[in-house]
Amino acid sequence: MRHPARPCTALTLATLALAAAGCSTAGGGGSGATAAPGPAAAASVTSCGMPLTVAAPPKRAVALDQASTETLLELGLQDRMAGTANLKTKVPPQYEAAYAGIPVIAPKIATGEQLRAATPDFVVAGSADLFTADRAGTREELAALKVPAYVSAVDCPERNPAGKSPFELLFSDYENLGRVFGAEERAGRLAAGQREAVAKAAESGAKSSPGADRPTVVYLYSVFNGMPYVAGKSGLPSEMSRIVGARNAFDDVDGDWPEVSWEEVAERDPDFIVIGDLSERGRPGDSAAEKRAVMDRHPVVSRLGAVRDGRIIEVPGIELDPSVRSVHALGLLAAGLKDHGRAR
């Protein structure tokens, strides 16, 4: 549900303009084991068709969602962050200490007033729909205030090169943000490590059932009011399936996470079911245990081979959406298919 933005005051707009004007001075880097951004230098990148330029590494970045928050933390940029918002679950243990020092400007979706009150000099989001007039404000509005607004390349399909995988688009985000913040070395290591993880998952999938028909997978993200929400063709799981030599059973259905019926799940008769555990989110039907219980009770789904024979793989649900953590879910998928035997 969208949260309507309250009108911004002249004070917050003026404060934001002053903060943006001061962003040409480089600040300190990360603390502890994190890598500090490089020396002050201008940088330019293009995000979803919009050229973005900073005179120096940002000092007051705001991340509007969990995916962008954790990307900046992975890059060691917590000391450059003036705010975060809209976390769906707890941050993982490796980010807890760094996250603790970042102001939460909004527990859910940030409004324009909340964003401007944080006086950012750079804004990052994993989803383009966070930059709307009734949310944080459009990217054009922010550009007029000299605040660059970056959208993940994964959520910009109309601008992306044909055939470029969602994982490669994620890696391009790391590299672009590394350039903006002067953290190219750390961003390069992150992208290289995750490319290696993707290659390992692909190799595991190719070796597990050479020449066999591709097994089908249903990705069960959530159960709301008793109805299943599964991965459609535009979500990351279709690419994850391809990498490991499988096929998303609902890759002919539009949307990232469309609502379907249990009867449709039964008709697809998947070889495997991947359950996204969202228990930390705390909504009814979010936990893996609840989803298993629903399937076990269903008169038709409970008879499916995948349910009856336990060909079920549990992964953290948030990792099924594009983020710095998604390669972990990919590895769990590859290992689970191999452990269960991938051929029909």
Automatic annotation (TrEMBL):
Belongs to the bacterial solute-binding protein 8 family. InterPro entries: ABC_Transporter_SBP (IPR050902), ABC_transptr_periplasmic_BD (IPR002491). This is ABC transporter substrate-binding protein. Residues 1-26 form the signal peptide. PANTHER family: IRON(III) DICITRATE-BINDING PROTEIN, VITAMIN B12-BINDING PROTEIN. Gene3D superfamilies: Nitrogenase molybdenum iron protein domain. Pfam families: Peripla_BP_2. Residues 60-344 form the Fe/B12 periplasmic-binding domain. PROSITE patterns: FE_B12_PBP, PROKAR_LIPOPROTEIN. Keywords: Signal. SUPFAM superfamilies: Helical backbone' metal receptor.
